[in-house]
Every structure is written in structure tokens, then in C-alpha cells.
Amino acid sequence: MRTGDSFISRKKNLDAGFCSGGRITWNELYADIDVKRNGYDNFYKKIAEYVKRGDKFVGYISHRPCSGGTTVARRLAYDLINKDAYISGKCYVVF
């Protein structure tokens, strides 16, 4: 099996849980199988600014069941910890 085929196969296996209504896992976030929501980048930047300044930030995402609120929260947590080395050293995510 070629490398590209292997990646596609692994990604399809990951899609089965989340895309079938399961809660997204950290591995699925790493595989980037979720769809970013409108306003995500602005919300990420706002949180990152607080963290870089050393300010505390507590966020609450109000959402209806099955509307993607948990996925957005997990995506934010994943990106805050993995995108920027400066932020990851100062950021603690609690669920």
C-alpha cells in the first residue's frame, strides 16, 4: 500500500466515529476532519490574545444538542495547545 493510500484509509477509519454522530476525538482533530464554523478564527484570535497577555479567559459556548458546540470547543482547545508554542506553554484546557 502506498503512503497516500494508507493515510486515506486511516482517515476513513477516523471518520466512522465522528461522522456517525460520535464525539470528536483528539486524533480526529489531528486528522482535521471537522469543518470550521463561521467566526471560529475571530474567536480563536481573541482567546489567543488573552493568553499571550497573561490574562485569564473563561469561555462558555451555549449550544443545542447535536449542533457542534462540543466539537468547536474541542477544536479551540486542540488549536490553542498545538498551533503556537508560546500559547501552549501558558494554556490549560479543562472540560
Please provide a written account of the structure.
It is a single chain. With 95 residues, the protein is mainly alpha-helical. 56% of the residues lie in helices and 0% in strands. The chain has helices at residues 3-18, 26-30, 40-53, 69-82, 85-88. The longest helix is centred in the first third of the chain and has 16 residues, at 3-18. It is globular and about 40 Å long.
Proportion of residues in β-strands: under 5%
The helix content is 55-70%
Q: What letter string, H or E per element, gives the SSE order?
A: HHHHH
Give the number of DSSP strands.
0
What do the pLDDT scores average to?
78
* Main sheet record: none
Radius of gyration: 15 Å
Quaternary class? single chain
Distance between the termini: 39 Å
The computed structural class is mainly alpha
User: How large is the count of helical segments?
Assistant: 5
Low-confidence stretches: none
The shape, in one word, is globular
Q: How do the helices and strands line up, and which of them pair or pack?
A:
Blueprint: H1 3-18, H2 26-30, H3 40-53, H4 69-82, H5 85-88
Helix pairs in contact: 3-4
Short description:
The protein is mainly α and 95 residues long. The protein is built from 5 helices and no strands.
Can you give keywords for this protein?
95 residues, mainly alpha, 5 helices, 56% helix
